[in-house]
Automatic annotation (TrEMBL):
<keyword id="KW-0963">Cytoplasm</keyword>
<dbReference type="Pfam" id="PF00365">
    <property type="entry name" value="PFK"/>
</dbReference>
<comment type="similarity">
    <text>Belongs to the phosphofructokinase type A (PFKA) family.</text>
</comment>
<keyword id="KW-0460">Magnesium</keyword>
<feature type="domain" description="Phosphofructokinase">
    <location>
        <begin position="2"/>
        <end position="235"/>
    </location>
</feature>
<comment type="pathway">
    <text>Carbohydrate degradation; glycolysis; D-glyceraldehyde 3-phosphate and glycerone phosphate from D-glucose: step 3/4.</text>
</comment>
<keyword id="KW-0418">Kinase</keyword>
<keyword id="KW-0808">Transferase</keyword>
<keyword id="KW-0067">ATP-binding</keyword>
<dbReference type="InterPro" id="IPR000023">
    <property type="entry name" value="Phosphofructokinase_dom"/>
</dbReference>
<keyword id="KW-0547">Nucleotide-binding</keyword>
<dbReference type="InterPro" id="IPR015912">
    <property type="entry name" value="Phosphofructokinase_CS"/>
</dbReference>
<keyword id="KW-0324">Glycolysis</keyword>
<dbReference type="InterPro" id="IPR012003">
    <property type="entry name" value="ATP_PFK_prok-type"/>
</dbReference>
<keyword id="KW-0021">Allosteric enzyme</keyword>
<protein>
    <recommendedName>
        <fullName>6-phosphofructokinase</fullName>
        <ecNumber>2.7.1.11</ecNumber>
    </recommendedName>
</protein>
<dbReference type="InterPro" id="IPR035966">
    <property type="entry name" value="PKF_sf"/>
</dbReference>
Length: 281
């Protein structure tokens, strides 16, 4: 919008992309949109092109920007939740999350082969800037011994305790999932803190999955979710919705005001963390 890099799209413009990751639109984070001058440029371009409505795809930041822009210039915007972090109030799942979880899971499964063959402890860092959703889901599905998430403090003493309990039951390998935003630090930092507290013969390794989780062929679930939410956002806009995000809750399409999606937390299900502990015994 700021660069005026706009072209008309028809149905065929999206043919043969359903199986691709990333974005053909090349829309991305923009520092300039955070300034009134940047948003003015965007508005002027939209005016010149007679564009009367917007669909914003992204997370909390995107919807904050969209809300500010809507308040300043009155252009109606409907959001579609696109973030691998799944940390948006107003939808059970966000576009990209399921693919990211499955990518992380595939990596965890592969790492498990080394962990169990060579009796090692692996700390695996998954993405989640402020959110433990990828960690908890990939951790449960990957049979992790412990999952560390930003929403709930897991003290280092608890990690040590979990490892020691495993050894007392003759468990020779362990997998601990650390969400990027965990309070105890990165997986490397957590591993460094653990090393000095456990048996010096413990063979500890760290893997950071990084941007592997942020691309690749989308899962069937994500393709269907993106199709439903894209259509939901478009039909909402045409029907006169504005400053809301299309989401799916209990399999129903719902619209939630941007204000709520931004302000309200989407708490992690702590019962799932409890389940990890039970299942890892
Ligand atoms: N306070 C704000 N005012 C205007 N634009 C914003 C604001 N916060 C975020 N944005 C816009 O949204 C973009 C995406 O925000 P970011 O937090 O990085 O990602 P996400 O949408 O995934 O949460 C930013 O690069 C910026 O262009
Ligand atoms: O690619 P960058 O800018 O390093 O961002 C990585 C960050 O983006 C996230 O993957 C979320 O990104 P999206 O909201 O765009 O899916 C975080 O989990 C991670 O911290």
């Amino acid at each position: 919008m700021i660069a005026g890099d706009v072209y008309k799209m028809e149905s065929h413009s999206v043919s043969n992309i359903v199986q691709r990751g990333g974005t053909i639109l090349k829309s991305a984070r923009s520092k300039e949109f955070m300034t009134p001058e940047g948003r003015k440029k965007a508005y002027d371009n939209l005016q010149a092109l007679e564009i009367e409505g917007l669909i914003a795809i992204g997370g909390n930041g995107t919807f904050t920007g969209a809300m500010i822009f809507g308040n300043e210039y009155g252009i109606p915007t409907v959001g579609a939740p696109g973030t691998i972090d799944n940390d948006l109030y107003g939808t059970d799942y966000t576009i990209g999350f399921d693919t990211a979880v499955n990518t992380a899971l595939d990596a965890i499964d592969r790492i498990r082969d080394t962990a169990s063959s060579h009796d090692r402890i692996f700390f695996i860092e998954v993405m989640g800037r402020d959110s433990g959703y990828i960690a908890i889901q990939s951790g449960i599905a990957g049979g992790a011994e412990l999952v560390m998430v930003p929403e709930v403090l897991t003290p280092i003493s608890q990690v040590v305790e979990t490892l020691k309990q495993g050894w007392s039951r003759s468990k020779s390998s362990s997998i601990i999932i650390v969400a990027e935003g965990d309070e105890e630090g990165s997986a490397q930092e957590v591993a460094d803190k653990i090393k000095v507290q456990v048996d010096e013969n413990a063979d500890i390794r760290v893997t950071t999955l990084g941007h592997t989780q942020r691309g690749g062929t989308p899962s069937a679930y994500d393709r269907i979710l993106a199709s439903r939410l894209g259509l939901g956002a478009l039909e909402g806009l045409i029907a006169g919705q504005k400053n809301v995000m299309a989401g799916i809750i209990n399999n129903e399409l719902v619209y939630t005001p941007f204000e709520d999606t931004i302000r309200l937390p989407k708490p992690i299900n702590e019962d799932l963390l409890r389940m990890v502990k039970i299942l890892s015994v």
